[in-house]
Amino acid sequence: MFECSICMDEHLVDDVALVEKCGHKFCRECMTDYIGSKLTENRFPILCPVCQAESDVQDAGFIQRGLVDQLALSQAQYDSWIDLELSQYSVMLDCRKCQSSGFVDSEDYKELQYIYCPLGDCDHVWCKACGQTVGPDQESQKLHSCDGENELNALMEAEGWKNCPGCKTPIERIIGCNHMACGTPGCNMHFCYKCGDSIIRSVLKDEIKGAVNAHFHQTTGKCPLFFIPAEDEGTS
Ligand SMILES: [Zn+2]
Ligand SMILES: [Zn+2]
Ligand SMILES: [Zn+2]
Ligand SMILES: [Zn+2]
Ligand SMILES: [Zn+2]
Ligand SMILES: [Zn+2]
Ligand SMILES: [Zn+2]
């Protein structure tokens, strides 16, 4: 015989609902009612009724699935238990592409930076932080930045663009010459495509010419003027 901590009646041991961690005992009827009321409040995890009443319990007991399985919960109650349990240990994902949702383990989710659609045959991958779609391969994931800066840089790299060192505007290189002149009004920056250095900020033709010639001077300059060195124009 034991005393139920809710109704204070003596019950046969067969009727015990034992909360494992704290060892508090209840009759199954009281425990079923108690869990039922917590479930309607969507409370989860559910504390042992005695431990909950004692506000400073260090090792408070929680109702575990094993105990629930011994009780005569209604199907609706049991379903809502499973839902709450699942939502505690897992995170629901919604895929924009296939419109499906699925669960991943919440511990795994914490570690993830990129989310793969939980549906097997969907190839959608997205960034956990910003939700933007990324490629399924590591290369494109490494490239991803939530503000799009890495992507822009990579595009610039691929397209042969360079930021103007004066105004930071991306400039496309059209001809094979490493001398770049920024077209942004008021910037007037001349810079080197090869090293990215600014050469001169000026509107005076002679001044520009002098600085550009110095940077690209054949022997004393820092960089060659042409991307692919010009073939034999009296240099050999
Ligand atoms: Zn009882
Ligand atoms: Zn307890
Ligand atoms: Zn999907
Ligand atoms: Zn992102
Ligand atoms: Zn500029
Ligand atoms: Zn030029
Ligand atoms: Zn240079």
From TrEMBL:
Keyword Repeat attached: yes
Keywords: Metal-binding, Repeat, Transferase, Ubl conjugation pathway, Zinc, Zinc-finger
One GO BP: protein ubiquitination
Catalytic activity: [E2 ubiquitin-conjugating enzyme]-S-ubiquitinyl-L-cysteine + [acceptor protein]-L-lysine = [E2 ubiquitin-conjugating enzyme]-L-cysteine + [acceptor protein]-N(6)-ubiquitinyl-L-lysine
The EC number(s) this enzyme carries: 2.3.2.31
Database matches in PANTHER family: RBR FAMILY RING FINGER AND IBR DOMAIN-CONTAINING
Protein name (Swiss-Prot/TrEMBL): RBR-type E3 ubiquitin transferase
